[in-house]
Design brief:
Blueprint lengths: L1 E6 L7 E6 L6 E5 L6 H8 L7 E6 L2 E2 L5 H7 E4 L10 H11 L6 H10 L16 H13 L5 E5 L7 H18 L2 E5 L11 E6 L2 E6 L2
Length: 213
């Protein structure tokens, strides 16, 4: 929950006096002009950047009272240009299992790779020899292995063609239904098949909320 949150990186606020609550298992699309603060909003929610004022509340606690690792596992931010770790695709997935203190499950990863149109790629392939669209989907899968409460998606299909974009969203909607995950996303492409419950509109540093589908 945001209570009167302001983000002021310089002389002028980028986001000012923002208040809202993310409900369980809902879809929220974030709209606004370029540079209005859409990505900034997602980064504030995920605690990647500090707010200037106001409170962020998680399970009745202000953010500073919540264990950082617990919060980051519950609120998962997927960037447009994910940074891949190590040397290979496998390295990226193994790191996620290590962070959760779990044994690496190759079958689960291969199943995800197939679902997202990446079955043709070997897990031991170098991260430097895959396309931007492949990197986006690998970055997304990393965040799906252990379901969060809230999934924040920042232009995560921008490098994909129409067929792969639809495939990603078909899988995300099935994932949401299975795991009861809330999804908030920013995209310059409005896919009519992806219907939000609410629409957050950012303009002139403020946020307004409209009912979606």
């Amino acid at each position: 929950m945001f209570e009167n949150v302001t983000f002021k990186p310089g002389e002028e606020s980028l986001l000012e006096d923002i208040s809202f609550q993310i409900k369980a298992n809902e879809m929220i699309r974030v709209e606004g002009p370029s540079g209005s603060g859409k990505s900034t909003l997602l980064r504030l929610i995920s605690s990647l950047i500090p707010r200037t004022s106001g409170d962020i509340i998680y399970k009745d606690q202000i953010l500073e009272e919540v264990n950082y690792q617990t919060y980051r596992k519950s609120i998962s931010y997927v960037s447009q240009n994910p940074h891949l770790f190590g040397r290979t695709i496998r390295d990226n997935f193994e790191l996620v299992f290590e962070a959760h203190d779990k044994a690496f499950d190759e079958k689960t990863i291969l199943d995800y790779m197939a679902e997202f149109g990446l079955a043709h790629i070997d897990l031991d392939k170098s991260i430097h020899k895959i396309s931007g669209g492949e990197k986006q989907r690998i970055g997304l899968i990393r965040h799906l292995i252990f379901p969060p409460a809230v999934l924040l998606l920042d232009e995560i299909t921008s490098s994909l063609d129409e067929d792969n974009r639809h495939k990603v969203w078909d899988n995300l909607l099935a994932y949401k239904q299975k795991h009861q995950v809330s999804i908030m996303w920013v995209s310059h492409i409005q896919d009519d098949a992806v219907l939000p419950d609410r629409i957050f509109k950012i303009q002139d540093h403020t946020l307004s909320i409209e009912r979606g589908a």
